[in-house]
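writing this on my phone so excuse typos. first protein, seq and then structure
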Amino acid sequence: MKIVGKFVLILCLAQSLFSASAHLSSNEIQAGDRVALILVANGKEVKFPELSSIEGNEVVSTSQSQNIQSINGNVTRVIQKQYEFYPSTNIAIPSYEIEVDGKLEKTEQLSLHVKKVSSKNTPYLLDISLSNDTPYQNEGVVLRYIFKIRNDIKVRDLRFALPSFDGFWIKEGKKTNPKVEGDYILHEISYIVFAQHAGDIEIKPARIDIGLDSYTQDMFNMLTRSIEYKRVFSEAKTLHVKKLEGTNFVGDFEIIASIDKDKIASNENVNMTVKIVGYGNFDDLHEIKLDTKANIFSDKPVIKSEIVGDKLQGEFEQKLSLSSDKDFVINPIEFTYFSLKEAKVKTIKSQKFNIQVEKKELEKEIFIQAPKKQQEKIFVNEKEDRFWYGYLLGIMTAFGFLTLYFLKAKLKFKREKDFGEKSLLKRLLKIRNKDKKAEEYISLIENYLYKDKTTKLNKKEIVKFIKSYEE
């Protein structure tokens, strides 16, 4: 009993001599296991450091507790804070400063040894594979993660976390259904990564948090079930990226252009479709600009792509409509890329199209004057005179009303003709090259007709603008 008392006294004296200390919940763990850094301080007012990570490893949770003891009249207050994290490699934990009763105290440095998991006997494993580790800049590389877990392990939860892909553009690919392979269940997910610059670029480890059943026994011998998470990390991979010069596109492509007709009437539309198909970085393609003097209306391009084998197969499609009052030429579209098959920069071209515009003959208005009728004298007696005057007056009044009605209808028709959106658009197309403002009006009307009916159009202003060039 005396020995125990002496040991407690020595412990209290040690705590009073060393106001701050640090230790680990375990000095050696297996990769994927959780460990806690425990900082301890002895004092009334204690401030622990705020740690979001420990040597690059994210702190996933923290907790704090205190213990107050009184031995032989000496009151000691011991406070400790735990920082839990999942290290994947050996680390040296530095000294930390703790403020104890207004004084800064430093903890000792610690070392943690992390044992690698053997791929043969482990119950779970996260593999990573690359289709190519020496790609060109902007070349798509298929990145596959395969998670293996033994089929006798009951999993409550799975959480997959990608690393930060600094220096890459990433596109999600396929996620396959789980399949059984021997004693393991396999989950696979793939991505396409595109290196944005040349040089050695590291893909950092991904991880999976595995939620497993954990049972604890309380003071009444009752079992409580909860979820305990294990972390599994993939290996880090390095891509040795080769520089791409002369173009931003890499792969193997084919360009196809087609039109629905090569002869049109004046200001009739020619519909054109442009397709680029093959393998490569399709998502870097933008809207195609045609080299032609015709008026052009273009839809937004549609891009589709998917992983086929170890490549990104895709299709780019853009639909256009062209019109003119004169013959015009659609010059070939050029597309330059680095061919992986031929290992060189290559330029491909679409077909050239010559469009013939047939001019309409002007219709001549012929005015034919009706022949004058020979006037005949009509003799009426005085009694019938008033009757015929009233009759003629009624006819003239009715004719006047009819004339006013038709004039009003004609004015309404003319107004609709002048102010109709499609009519205004057609008239603006003829003068689009004369004034930049015509392009602004064309964009407004197209937006109203094909996208947003709430677009405000000042038709009087547009008509006035058009007439200033038509007169």
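second protein below, same order as before
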Amino acid sequence: MVVACSLQLACVRAGFERQSRAVAPDRSAAGVDVGSGGRGRDASARDRGARLDPSSPPSERDAGSRDALAEEAPCPGGPTVFYTNMPARRVLGQADFVGSAANRGGSATAASLSRPLGVVVYGSKLLVADNRNNRLLVFDREPASDGAAATAVIGQPDFTSTAAMTSASTVSAPQGLGLTGSALFVAEWDSARASLWPLDSLFSTPRLSTVFGQVDANSAVDVTTSVTPTSLGSVPSVLAVGSHYLVTDSDNHRVLVFDSTVGAPPAAIAAIGQPDLQSNGAGSLANQLNVPLGLATDGVRLAVVDAFNDRLLFFDQVPTTSGVAASSSWGSWGQGALNLDNPVGALSDGTRLFVADRGNDRVLVFNRWPTSPDQPPDVLIGQATYGTGEANQGQGTVAAANSLWGVHFLFYDGCRLFLSDTNNNRVLIY
């Protein structure tokens, strides 16, 4: 349900132990540890999956549709120029750049966030997956001030309700967001589903049209044994590319590939990270995954964020058969310029690649996709130097315009970079 305001619109898992509320899984123990070199962890839980409308194939494609949407909105001063340790230009979810408390230390409002995750821009609107408040908030893409209030809410009857519900008009612990040519693509951890929400009714009568991973919009069955082409466990992210929908099934260490012409319930045609559609073991070979969390495409190539292997896997195109090995990889565990620590989200603007390196509280920006494991990033956001990875650059719970704490997902619309600074309970705009 969309509510107008004056007409305004992870499971921490230690050994995959399930908890109740959703962020992308983290290797560390539950609870946020501010003192462990800043690699603060979430005491969290889950997000899930949806069903497919064969009459609404993915757009002509991700990078292309983002460019088209960006053209609909102005870009004052021109696109952002990225440089190391740069400050954000705007903050949402907090009154200023210093605050970090969930819901600003109180209960949910139109201007507060509690563990924000997915972010996506559609025309002049910014949509944010407000994970612990079980809702999607809609903001102006270029807010007039820091801490601006959302103009609409999706998934709740008003700006103060936060109950988790699984239905065709609600979301339960939403995580990653994406766009197809005709729909908002939503990953829900607690409902073990992904879903498509038609854009033409999103701001009037929002209701999903397609659900992956469940028999209907009211079901929330998390499948981690006896997996099938139609089942899902935890779903942190989604992506539409070419003629396919991709859904990360992190509990089952696979990315499912769906053809846009399949029926309901949708059945995957291939599994990335597994030899077939019935297997779900973890591994570290070029054709295996260990908790995949993020996805990115330049319109042709595919990048998979293989979180527990602390690496990116690259595919020359979206695999349409199971068991395909990555053509190359980048990253290993650590804090240096060639390392990752429990990464989550990634995005590409068609040329550059942005990676949310959650455990190091930073974003890596490559001016071109890495072609060698020895290729360092060109820009570092959230830290001043490599070799450090402290939350809020060592200031604990005191945030700043140039610091991060548990960054998860990102979106670039051709003008601005939007990212979820999850442990600081805010969204930053660069």
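Confidence is low (pLDDT under 50) at residues 1-22, 28-71. thats all i got for now
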